[in-house]
Recover the amino acids of this structure.
């Protein structure tokens, strides 16, 4: 018998979990009970139905969202048939009398032009068709007509005309919100585009100056450095894709450090410890290089002796853990907090706050930079990169190592 | 068996695993040379890691046991376990890598853009993982019992604790190196003793194991019955009995048992004469698990064989710990090369267990009687070679067996814990990952203590059947069919995988005693895989409006080699 129980446990638990989740998703709030008087109950019902119809509409007016919302809207109005259209065609017909589709579209030409509601009887050759009369209420966003809500009924009803108008206005508000959502997404995308690939101008001047200093004394070295510089700028100015792989980003950091070493010589020591498993992880383009640049700056700042930078990338289940640590001057945490919040502009480069912003936008707030620092105690920056995030794909192919 | 060598060997394997896992990376990769540090994992290393994680207790112990009991029909197991990678290579490997998905739920989300399907896939990953972990823990228990006589559950608990501790502590940092190391360890642990065993067999005059007739004792052999069993005799049998047979106790009495079924109580010692055919044993009624799985197989071998072939061929692609390793490949072509290398490595390994099975039938036939056939691999070196040499080889095999439990169990635990943390527990983070690890291990551990006694290779076969009925349709249709919709995928996984899961539960519970129904439930893949495919296809066709937007772009990304994608991007900036 114990075997029976254990067998059941093993096999049924996942199913139970799935069932529980499905149940939670589809749970009807009516079952909460204790809703007081019938009026209160009806109010609650109406609000609940409306709230169920809202999420699909918030994605804009398409065939799929219209299909999801139409049933809820019909139960909200209590009519026999409800139809949602855009400017050209019927998106969805919920309920009886779907053969009126083409007729409705013909009759809609006027209301779609004027943006004013209308009610009219339908001509029908089907003998026992329950749909004889239609109310048209246009859906307007920013004073432009996007489509119409059509409610059909067996006979004329003034209540339905008023109700359809109200529901159409409510739907219009949802569509306006959808528009707002879309422009917000566009804004974020534009912001990401604006944020990316801002390599520090100081770095370009310094690199060129260093290369220039080698041109006479050591032309071969100057040539190598120039090539490193070319590789680095090619990477940072490349046009396609917002994302890269950890391996490519590390190569870019290598080119960057070669140029920095040419300037500072033996004062800079870098060690790396990279788990090969995380090299294919996709990440926002140029989001580690600024951190290394920051480490170099802080490491060499106010110190005449050597500086040690350690870069580690570890495999942590579904995430890659990247840590960049220097033993330099460190920083006052309060000041750092204000820099990250954008209240104070940092002394040089756009560095940390830019990276922090992009990580938050791509992965969400829980994947922002974690910085441990104090004056004189160096700085340790930790980045947690999910191995998979919807919409994050590296554009290029990994270089074979 | 002498445990004075085996126990240190097992301990050594455990310690080596933990150490390589924790420090392997630090030793080999701390450098200031970017070229060295950012070298990606080559196909061969990755293939060794995949094989190391894949070759489980079922491969190491189970196949030999099955060949011992049932003969060469069971060679379909190693064939199936290997051929699964061929299907993976042809249909899944490169597109899966190009999808950028790390786990199977990730793939579901990447392809169908539906969080609901993602969670369903997560639930099945947990289910398959638990089903697969169960035999690993049981195998560990069996190994430790054979080695030291410790109680059945102890080995399972040791493996569970070691794995949970290392995974939860963030141990397996350099997992690719650990698993590759485990592969070579396992191969050595089977190959070296096998060479010596074959030499011993040659020295014995190379007797042929005759599979078509019942195994026979080659010398007088005394067998102690550990658990009460029912002996089923075709012919009368003469044995010397010390203990209780059919309710009557004997003391070294010579007994002639008539044809029919006889109940032998626990602790009884039977002495068989040389040349006696080994009778078929069946566990007594005190065990809920019916061993009739073996019988039903001999009754309808064709159906069972096809069920097995389908489950193993198509199930490999849905094993959570295997899929995760493909992420390490830098691109699709490397993923394909890795799969080819896995085919070679796994193929080489699977040549060995059947050797143990065949030799076991010659030299340890009584294992078929006591139901501990899975122990054949462990016992053979002692039986055939003996002395210090036999003990040392036995210790090597035992160490290899523990490597098998540890590597597969840690891979599975990480996969299951990852899904639990990401999709089930409320928020992500290190603490929740530890909680997930604990949960991932606790359930199969409890089940293994409660269930006990299912043949290891059979239990793994059930996990394969569930994986084949749920993930195979999702992956194959997801990669190759542009009209797949989220409702279709969800319905297909629920119907195919759910049916397989229920059939597995019923089988493990021993519900349908015997006959055709039992065979259908014990080998569900033959009907549940087509059912899953059919449901997924039909529901997808019925919901044409739900094809995710951007499907064409996603499929192009799955199938276009990465260089082409790059060029295209540069042509049209």
């Amino acid at each position: 018998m114990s075997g029976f129980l254990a067998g059941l446990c093993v096999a049924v638990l996942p199913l139970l979990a799935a069932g529980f989740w499905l149940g939670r998703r589809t749970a009807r709030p009516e079952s909460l009970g204790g809703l007081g008087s019938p009026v209160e109950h009806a109010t609650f019902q109406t609000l609940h139905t409306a709230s169920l119809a809202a999420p699909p509409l918030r994605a804009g007016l398409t065939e799929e969202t219209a299909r999801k919302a139409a049933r809820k809207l019909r139960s909200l109005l209590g009519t026999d048939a409800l139809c949602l259209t855009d400017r050209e065609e019927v998106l969805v017909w919920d309920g009886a009398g779907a053969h009126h589709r083409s007729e409705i579209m013909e009759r809609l030409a006027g209301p779609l032009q004027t943006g004013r509601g209308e009610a009219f009887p339908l001509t029908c050759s089907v003998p026992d068709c329950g749909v004889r009369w239609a109310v048209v209420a246009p859906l307007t966003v920013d004073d432009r007509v996007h489509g119409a809500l059509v409610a059909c009924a067996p006979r004329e009803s003034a209540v339905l005309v008023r109700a359809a108008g109200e529901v159409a206005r409510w739907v219009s508000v949802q569509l306006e919100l959808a528009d707002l959502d879309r422009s917000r997404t566009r804004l974020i995308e534009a912001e990401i585009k604006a944020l990316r690939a801002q390599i520090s101008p100081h770095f370009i001047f310094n690199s060129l100056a260093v290369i220039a200093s080698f041109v006479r004394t050591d032309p071969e070295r100057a040539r190598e450095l120039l090539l490193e510089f070319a590789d680095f700028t090619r990477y940072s100015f490349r046009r396609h894709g917002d994302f890269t792989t950890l391996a490519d980003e590390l190569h870019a950091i290598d080119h960057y450090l070669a140029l920095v070493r040419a300037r500072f010589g033996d004062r800079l020591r870098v060690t790396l410890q990279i788990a090969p498993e995380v090299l294919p992880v996709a990440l926002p383009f140029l989001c580690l290089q600024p951190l290394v640049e920051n480490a170099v700056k802080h490491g060499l700042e106010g110190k005449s002796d050597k500086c040690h930078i350690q870069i580690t990338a570890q495999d942590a289940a579904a995430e890659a853990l990247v840590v960049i640590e220097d033993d330099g001057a460190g920083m006052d945490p309060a000041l750092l907090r204000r820099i990250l919040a954008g209240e104070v502009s940092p002394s040089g480069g756009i560095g940390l706050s830019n990276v922090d912003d992009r990580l938050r936008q791509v992965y969400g707030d829980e994947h922002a930079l974690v910085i441990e620092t104090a004056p004189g105690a160096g700085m340790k920056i930790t980045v947690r990169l999910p191995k998979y995030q919807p919409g994050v794909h590296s554009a290029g192919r990994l270089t074979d190592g | 068996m002498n445990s004075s060598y085996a126990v240190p060997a097992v301990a050594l394997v455990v310690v080596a695993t933990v150490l390589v896992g924790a420090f392997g990376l630090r030793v080999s990769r701390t450098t200031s040379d970017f070229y060295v540090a950012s070298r990606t994992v080559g196909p061969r290393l990755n293939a060794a890691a995949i094989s190391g994680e894949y070759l489980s207790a079922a491969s190491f112990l189970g196949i030999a046991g099955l060949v011992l009991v049932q003969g060469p029909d069971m060679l379909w197991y190693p064939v199936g376990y290997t051929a699964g990678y061929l299907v993976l290579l042809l249909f899944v490997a490169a597109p899966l890598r190009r999808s950028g998905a790390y786990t199977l739920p990730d793939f579901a989300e990447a392809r169908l853009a539906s969080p609901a399907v993602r969670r369903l896939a997560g639930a099945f990953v947990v289910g398959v993982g638990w089903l697969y972990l169960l035999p690993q823990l049981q195998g560990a228990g069996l190994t430790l019992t054979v080695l030291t006589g410790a109680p059945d559950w102890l080995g399972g608990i040791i493996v569970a604790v070691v794995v949970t501790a290392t995974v939860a502590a963030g141990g397996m940092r350099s997992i690719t190196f650990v698993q590759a190391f485990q592969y070579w360890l396992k191969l050595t642990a089977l190959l070296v003793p096998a060479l010596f065993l074959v030499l011993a067999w040659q020295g014995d005059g190379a007797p042929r194991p005759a599979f078509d007739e019942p195994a026979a004792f080659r010398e007088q052999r005394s067998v102690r019955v550990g658990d009460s069993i029912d002996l089923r005799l075709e012919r009368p049998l003469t044995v010397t009995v010390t203990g209780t047979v059919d309710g009557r106790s004997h003391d070294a009495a010579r007994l002639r048992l008539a044809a029919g079924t006889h109940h032998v109580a626990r602790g009884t010692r039977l002495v068989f004469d040389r040349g006696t055919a080994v009778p078929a044993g069946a566990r007594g009624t005190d065990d809920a698990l019916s061993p009739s799985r073996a019988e039903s197989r001999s009754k309808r071998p064709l159906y069972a064989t096809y069920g097995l072939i389908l489950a193993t061929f198509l199930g490999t692609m849905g094993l959570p710990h295997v899929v995760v390793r493909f992420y390490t490949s830098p691109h699709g072509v490397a993923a394909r090369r890795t799969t080819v290398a896995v085919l070679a490595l796994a193929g080489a390994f699977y040549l060995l267990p059947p050797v143990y099975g065949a030799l076991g039938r010659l030299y340890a036939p009584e294992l078929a009687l006591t139901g501990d056939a899975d122990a054949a691999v462990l016992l053979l070196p002692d039986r055939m070679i003996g002395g210090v040499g036999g003990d040392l080889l036995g210790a090597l095999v035992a160490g290899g067996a523990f490597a098998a439990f540890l590597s597969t169990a840690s891979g599975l635990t990480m996969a299951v814990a990852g899904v639990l943390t990401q999709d089930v527990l409320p928020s992500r983070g290190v603490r929740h990952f530890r909680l997930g690890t604990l949960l991932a291990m606790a359930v199969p551990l409890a089940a293994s203590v409660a269930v006990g006694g299912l043949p290891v290779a059979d239990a793994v076969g059930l996990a394969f059947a569930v994986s084949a009925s749920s993930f195979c349709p999702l992956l194959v249709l997801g990669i190759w069919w542009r009209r797949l919709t989220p409702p279709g995928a969800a319905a297909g996984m629920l119907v195919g995988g759910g049916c397989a899961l229920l059939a597995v539960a019923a089988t493990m519970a021993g519900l349908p005693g015997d006959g055709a129904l039992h065979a259908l439930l014990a080998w569900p893949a033959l009907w549940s895989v087509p059912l899953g495919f059919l449901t997924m296809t039909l529901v997808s066709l019925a919901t044409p409006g739900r094809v995710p937007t951007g499907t064409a772009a996603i499929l192009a990304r799955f199938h276009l080699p990465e260089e082409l994608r790059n060029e295209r991007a540069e042509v049209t900036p």
Chain B touches chain A through 85 residues (CB under 8 Å). The CA atoms of residues 31 and 37 of chain B lie 7 Å apart. Chain B has 24 helices and seven strands. Residues 283-297, 567-573 of chain B have pLDDT under 50 and may be disordered.
